[in-house]
Amino acid sequence: MNAPQLKERIDLHDLANRLGMRRNGKGNYHAPWREDKNASLSVFDGRDGVPRWKDYADEEKAGTCIDLVMLVRGVDASEAVSQLHGMYGIPTDPESGNQGPKRPLPKQEYFWRNKDRKHKDIQKAADYLIKVRKLPAEQVNKWKGKAFGYTDWVPPNDSVEAAKCGPAVVFPVQDEFGALIGRNQRFLMADKDESKMTNRGRVSGGMYLPTPSVKRAPVIWLVESPIDALTLAAAGCPAVAFLSASFVKSFPLSWLKPTQRLMILADSDKSGRKAAATLYHRAITDGITAQIVDWFDNFKDPNDAMQNMKPPKKEEGDKEDGEKEEKKKDKRTEEEKREEKKLACLEVIGKQARKVNTDLFPVGDAPYIDDFIEFGWMSACVCRLDTTSMRYEREDGGEGSKSVAGFRVYRLDPIVVHDLSTAIGGQAGGSFSRKTLVTYRRANSDRLQREIIEDDEDGNPATWRKLGGRLHNFDLLNKLLQPLGRDRRSKRETVGVFGLVRVGDALQAVDARSGFLTEEECIYSRLQIPSAPPETARPILEKVDGLLKDHLGIIQLGWNLGALMKVFFGFWPHLVIDGHSGSGKTIVANQVMRRLIGYECKEPSELNTEFRQMKILGNHVYPVVFDEISRAKEASIQTFINLLNTSYGGDQTRRHGATRKYLLAAPACLVGQDNPTESDAAINTKTIQFQMDGKKVQGGLFDPDAPFPVLEWCEWLKKRGWTRAKAAERLQAHREVLEQRLMRRKGDTNLDRLVSNYAALQVAIEELFVFSGYRNDGVWKTVVHLMNEHVKWTRATRHESVAVIRQFAREISLLHKHDAHPPYRVDGDRLVIPPQLTMDFLHKCGHSFPIRTNRALVKHLDTDGYCVERNVAKSINGRQFKCVVLDLKKLEADGVDWPRNTDEGHE
User: Fold this and answer.
1) Parallel, antiparallel, or unpaired for β 432-442 and 407-418?
2) Cα–Cα distance, 752 to 612 (Å, whole number)
3) Residue pair 509/503 in contact by the 8 Å Cβ criterion
4) Does the pLDDT of residue 557 top 50, yes or no?
């Protein structure tokens, strides 16, 4: 992707967050390159649609995403572009001569690139749009070969009529990812009784865009046919076509951003009204601001209005201007006159569209006023768009609407919110609460908002004042809302967790739309689980398998997708990738895998506070990657390692306020040259490790056609009938195989959890092979090799009790920083400690470990072979304590750096 494409696609708010910039609430940002007390850096969309920023305290500093990285990171433009590619996992444009083997084009893309858009008779399609469809010639000529093409293909069977096969105008159909999946063809010579159009390829789940920039527009018009989309585009209104009323249930909506608005303008016939209502309810359910528009009273659709509308009469000017105008008219040709009429009609259509948009979404703080009639009141669709105003008959016999509140309520959805701990817990069901999801819009807002309220709060006026503000007549509002809340078809069960989780007695793939997560609760509050056709899984696996030597690409992809199986296993290991600079670890982890799975990649600067760490690891089971975590602060790293220990098995906790809960369940991938987990005994048995040095395969960059079908993978696991019991059975089978090949030495302990990690990885890879239809048995040898290397690397540092004693030793060496004195005594090569006081001391110093009680500490020390005596009474500075006596030489051999400069105990 080149620099202009980066400028168009990267969200500056997301980039500012990745760069660690502080924000003033939901307003401006603090400029990081100077002292900025007033938050003077603003982010906005430029007139060309490109996201831009400006520092109003220093107006010379402004620009795009590249300029922001240059200033914050202090790098030049080329390095800024490189860092943006790395941060967002976007592959760079391959250089000439290093593109690797040329991949074959998909069938529909081949037709469009080589035949339809380059047809020698494409002018026939342009003439059809100009003469029959009355589109302006200048605009059509710009679109020729880009927004439409031409075909005259006719099958060799003489019984098939030519009008049903060609010649035709071709409109390319693409999916939500931008890949060409089919073609919509409009016949040029079709009679009234014959079929006017046909579809080639897979059109269901696709859409037609006149230009790629339509996706970035703040207001998008949704119409039925591609010709209607071209008509509105010519009038200056960005439009997308859903192609047919039969495709509305599969029309993709996930590409829309929360800040965009959808104006649904379907055909005025019965099927069009039905399609509009379906699209409207789908959009509202997904939290997308949408409105049905119905302002073509006498015409079926925008292009019908374009063909049959009479241009408005111009007002007469003075005599001189009139004479000049007459002279000009005499010189104009008939073609020029027709073009002028078209432009006049387009001006009317564009003006009316903008007026409808302004009326539906007024700008300003004033509440809605009486006699305000919202467009799109379509009783035939059972789609009542305005639920906070009532209709009445005016004295003059007309119809008006009386406002009862200063806001609009669009939907009331009853939802059942299950407890977080049951989302990946072993028991189905669990505690839950009934709530109501309110979808509403304030008077001074141009987008929908969603809020969850308690089930019994909908009859409380204070609740509605808190949500929307002004109430004119609450009793009447309550009556109007009652029918809206009786629709139980929209009832949903969910949990506030992202990923494949347990919802009640069933499994469900919960994404940002159904999780109702806020930005403060989860980094994936806006991400939707990537989706693609299931048949794309096999070619992706084949490419991934050829990406790295020893099948490490499959290992990494299996780890990513296996993280979603935590609901079955109850745990999932973290992944540690070591490698020197240039080994390719960042490209594979942050670019290739991120494009396939859609996970987040975090910088070390984002771990500065415990709140950010909780937000990154909390309320989701989706993978998250950390690049060069060793560059973070030492105190932050230690806190983060403790959180990783907790997230291994999933643990619910409350932090930063009594009302904020976090389910620490996220698996982390740590990428770097010097990972802090190498010497931490509590975490290295909860990881899978491999090195990237010498594993990168030379060649072009990995360029998948589409993301991996993660959503389809989740649905497939549900259909396979996976349960905790089945997962335990499969896990045990793989454990038995790995135990036979485990290179265990005498005295090796704490290997059960380590073997379980690699067994779980094998189960996930095996399921991935069945799902995709691709298989390579060489992967199993790689897993065994990685496991045995892991055992060898961590032989001395995989005991969790060592982590506690090591931290105890560190606090002794930093004793002057604390008021408390650690209780211990050194007798030659024996260390005497009272377990209860030791754990209390470490907790006061701000440390937390998976070993949380004194009994657990003694048990681990004894199991790991460090105890010489246990539960003995010893004197420390004249006081008696129940202590354990440890072998200090063995502790030091296993990595405990005990301060030998003192041999006196402390009380």
Assistant:
1) antiparallel
2) 32
3) no
4) yes
Element (H, E) at 492: strand 492-494
Place of tokens 């789940």: 205
Q: Report CA-CA distances (Å) from 862 to 295, 638, 744, 796.
A: 80, 25, 20, 16
pLDDT of residue 843: 77
Sequence-distant (6+) residues with CB within 8 A of 575 are: 556, 559, 667, 668, 669, 670, 687, 688, 689
CA angle 262, 268, 269 (to 5 degrees): 130
User: What span, in angstroms and rounded, lies between the C-alpha atoms of 472 and 442?
Assistant: 14
Q: What are phi and psi of 677, to 5 degrees?
A: -85, -10
Could you tell me if 570 and 748 are in contact, meaning their C-beta atoms sit under 8 angstroms apart?
A: no
The amino acid that residue 453 corresponds to is: I
What are the tokens at 164? 């049903």
Burial of 628 (0-12, 13-18, 19+ CB in 10 A): middle
Residue 40 CA to residue 35 CA, distance in Å, equals: 11
Dump the DSSP string for 107-150. HHHHHIIIIITT-TTHHHHHHIIIIIS---HHHHHHHBTTTBEE
Question: DSSP alpha helices (H): ranges in 198-301?
Answer: 226-234, 270-285
Residue 676 tokens read as 């802090």
- Residue 367, number of CB atoms within 10 A of its CB: 19
pTM: 0.64
- Please count the other Cβ atoms lying within 10 Å of the Cβ belonging to residue 899: 13
> Rounded distance, CA 503 to CA 747, Å?
44
Question: Are the C-beta atoms of 199 and 243 separated by less than 8 Å?
Answer: yes
pLDDT in tens, 668-687: 988 887 676 655 656 778 88
Percent above pLDDT 70 for the chain: 79
CA 348/CA 236 separation, integer angstroms: 11
820: phi then psi, degrees, rounded to nearest 5: -75, 155
Count of C-beta atoms within a 10 Å radius of residue 612: 18
| Residue 677: closest CA among 798, 556, 570, 591 | 798
Q: What is the pLDDT of residues 585-608, one digit of tens each?
A: 777 777 678 778 888 888 787 887
